[in-house]
Amino acid sequence: xxxxxxxxxxxxxxxxxxxxxxxxxxxxxxxxxxxxxxxxxxxxxxxxxxxxxxxxxxxxxxxxxxxxxxxxxxxxxxxxxxxxxxxxxxxxxxxxxxxxxxxxxxxxxxxxxxxxxxxxxxxxxxxxxxxxxxxxxxxxxxxxxxxxxxxxxxxxxxxxxxxxxxxxxxxxxxxxxxxxxxxxxxxxxxxxxxxxxxxxxxxxxxxxxxxxxxxxxxxxxxxxxxxxxxxxxxxxxxxxxxxxxxxxxxxxxxxxxxxxxxxxxxxxxxxxxxxxxxxxxxxxxxxxxxxxxxxxxxxxxxxxxxxxxxxxxxxxxxxxxxxxxxxxxxxxxxxxxxxxxxxxxxxxxxxxxxxxxxxxxxxxxxxxxxxxxxxxxxxxxxxxxx
Amino acid sequence: xxxxxxxxxxxxxxxxxxxxxxxxxxxxxxxxxxxxxxxxxxxxxxxxxxxxxxxxxxxxxxxxxxxxxxxxxxxxxxxxxxxxxxxxxxxxxxxxxxxxxxxxxxxxxxxxxxxxxxxxxxxxxxxxxxxxxxxxxxxxxxxxxxxxxxxxxxxxxxxxxxxxxxxxxxxxxxxxxxxxxxxxxxxxxxxxxxxxxxxxxxxxxxxxxxxxxxxxxxxxxxxxxxxxxxxxxxxxxxxxxxxxxxxxxxxxxxxxxxxxxxxxxxxxxxxxxxxxxxxxxxxxxxxxxxxxxxxxxxxxxxxxxxxxxxxxxxxxxxxxxxxxxxxxxxxxxxxxxxxxxxxxxxxxxxxxxxxxxxxxxxxxxxxxxxxxxxxxxxxxxxxxxxxxxxxxxxxxxxxxxxxxxxxxxxxxxxxxxxxxxxxxxxxxxxxxxxxxxxxxxxxxxxxxxxxxxxxxxxxxxxxxxxxxxxxxxxxxxxxxxxxxxxxxxxxxxxxxxxxxxxx
Lengths: 386, 503
What we know:
Number of strands of chain A: 18
Oligomer: heterodimer
Strand order of the largest sheet of chain B: 11-12-13-14-17-18-20-21
Radius of gyration of chain B: 24 Å
Helix content of chain B: 25-40%
Structural class of chain B: alpha/beta
C-alpha cells in the first residue's frame, strides 16, 4: 500500500523545522530558496516527511479551486473523478509533474484538478467555501485510497515522505513562482510513512506548518467536531488549521484575536488589563477555552493574504522572525534566513503567544498581477483589525 | 422483643491504659460508654456502637480499640451478615430501612480503573512551582461564537455573555442542607468557599441570615419542598440550583424529622418548629421538561438575569437525553449526582440500588451534548463519589467543568462515614442539631480543615496537569485522550470513550 503504515496512536507525534517567506508587494520568487532554507535545518527532520505550500502559483486559474490529490490506485482516482463531476465543473486536470529523486520512494499517484462548483450546487449553498470543505472532508473520509492534500485557489501544497529538500526537488518546485511560501521538515516519532501525513496541512487557502505537540489535542478536536469538522489525519496541524478556519473565516475574528484564543494570555495578565480588554479576554477564554493550544508549538499559518507565525504562550518551541524590505521571514532557526538572504539584518524573537503577521496591502489582490508599492504591515503592536 | 442483631463492633478497653477520664463517656451521643464509680471502671454497651470512632480518636491514652465484631454466621456468599441484620431489623420494627451517606456497595469504581497520561520526551512536562498553572474555571452558558465590533482603534466585544460563576479551583461543596448538618458545619463550608474563591451549596434547607455575608460564594438551592425560598434568599446567592434529584435517592423526596426542626431551622426553612420537613418526590410544578423551563425562566426573571441557574439531577439510565432537554430548557449548569452521592437520610434499598455510576453518566452526557452541538451552552458539574484530586482530574478529563464534593468535605471536618447521619446524633458535631454536639465543630477549625483540603487538592491537580504538559485546566476538560482504562470491558471503554492502556 502506498499509504504506508498508519498507526492508531492518539495522534501524530513529531518535531519539526518550519520556514516561511512572504513578499508583501506580491512579487514572486521560485521555490529554490525555500529548498535551500529548509535543507539547512536538516537535523530537525528525519526523512519521514517534508512539504511546501506556495501562494500565487496558478495565476492562469486564479478563480478556480485547485485540488491536489494523491491516490493509491486508479480505482480511487476514477471514484474521485466521478464524485467531482457530480458537484463541480472540471476546468482542467493533469498529473502533477515530478522528477525521479533519490530519497523519494514509492510516491502515490499525484493529480491536480482545477474546478469550480456547479451552478446548481451554488444555488443551494450559501457559502461555496463551506461546500468545498464538506466535499474535501467527504472524499478524505469516504473514498478509500484517495486523499485531497490541497484545496485552495491559486495556491498549492506539495508534500510527501522524504527529506523536505528531496520532496522539493521531486515536485520541481524551482519551476513554480509564488509570493508566499512555507516549508516543513518532519521528525515524527511514530514513523508514519504516509504521504498525506506530511505537512503543510491545507484546507481552502489556509495552510499550516507546525512544530510541536499539542497537549490539549483531545479537547481541541472534540470542540471542532461540534462545529462539523472531521479530523481525519490525527495531527495537531489539522486541528490548528480548522481552529483558525473556524475563528477567522466562520466567526470573523481578527488575526490578533485568533492568536489570543490559540495562545491565550494568562489569567494573571488578564487581571491586570484595562477594563475593556479584561472583559474581552475573559470572554475569549470563557468561550473558546477548548481551543487554547496547550503544550509546545510553533506554527506558521498562511492564507492568500497573510502569513502568521505564532508560538505557544510559554514559548516551548523556537520561532524567529526577520524582515528585509518587502520580505518577511519566519523560521525555526535564524541561520536559514541568513542563508537565503545575506543582507538580512532585522531579526527578532517574538514573545510566546505574540503573532508575527505579514500581510498583503489592500490594493494588491492575492493571485492577480501585483504592482509596486506595498509594504510589510506588522499587525503586531499596532491596530487590531476586527 | 429481643433483638437478634449482634453488635456490629466490639470495643476493647486496655484497663492498664485507661485513666478513667470519661472522655469516651461524654463524647458518645449513642450512650455506649458509662463509668461505674463503685467499681472505678468504664463499661461499654457495644450494641449501641456505630463505629464513628469519636471515642477512640479522643481517648488521651489510646486505651480504646473499636473493631468489627468477628462473630459471623456460617460462611455464605448469598446471605451475608448485613443482609441478615437488615431482615432482623425489619422483622423487629416493620419499617423501611434507613441509612446515611452514599452507597457503600462494591459497584465498580471507574475512577480506579482509569489512569492518567504524562509527558515524556516529545513534549515537556511543566513544573507548577516554577511556571504558571491555571485552575480558574467559569461555569455558565457560553455562546457559540463571539461577535466583535470596533471601538475606536480597539477591538471590543459585542456579544454579551450569560452570567458566569468564577471558580479559582474547579471544586465546589455539594448541596448539604442546614438541617441535615449543623449551623457550624454550614458556616465552615461557607467560610472555606469564600476563602478559596469557590462555592458551597445551601441544599434545600434555606440560608441562615447570619450566612448572607457569604452570599457571593453561595449557590442557593430550590428544591421540591421550597424550604426557605424567598426573595432575599434568591437575591443574596451567586447562583441558583433547581434540585430535581439526588444521587443517594433518585426519584424520591426527603424527610427531615420534626425533632431536628429547631427554632433556628424553623425560621430558616419557614416551617413551624418541631414539624417534619417533607420534600415531595417531584416538584409539583414540574411534571415535564417544559415545566422545568418555566421554573428556570421564572428564577432568571426574578433575579434579573444576573445569576446562572443550575439544574441538578440524579444520574439515571437516560441521563444523557434528560440533560440535553435541560440544556434546551435553559439550564446554565447541569449538575449530575452519581449513585455514590451522599445523603443525610435515605431508604437503604434506594440508596444502594437506584442510579448509575457518575463516571458513566458524565461520559454519556458530555458526549451527547457534544453530538448535539450544545455542550458550550451549559457547564457540567459532577457529584457523588469524588474522593481525591485524581478523581477530580479524571472527571474533568472525561468532560466535567467542575466537581462538587460532599462526603469528602464532611470527612475533612471529622466525619468517619459511620452512615448514621439520620439519627441526628453525630458525635463529630456535623450531622446534628443538638447544641451539645454541634459545638464540637468550631467553624474556625472546620473551615481551616476544608481550606487545607482544597489547597492540597489544587496543588495535586496542578502537578498532574503539569505532568501532562498542560498549564490551563480548560485544556484538560473533555480531553479524554489523556485517559486510559485498565481492566475495563470494551463496552465500558466505549461508553467512557477512552482507550485501553497500551493502546
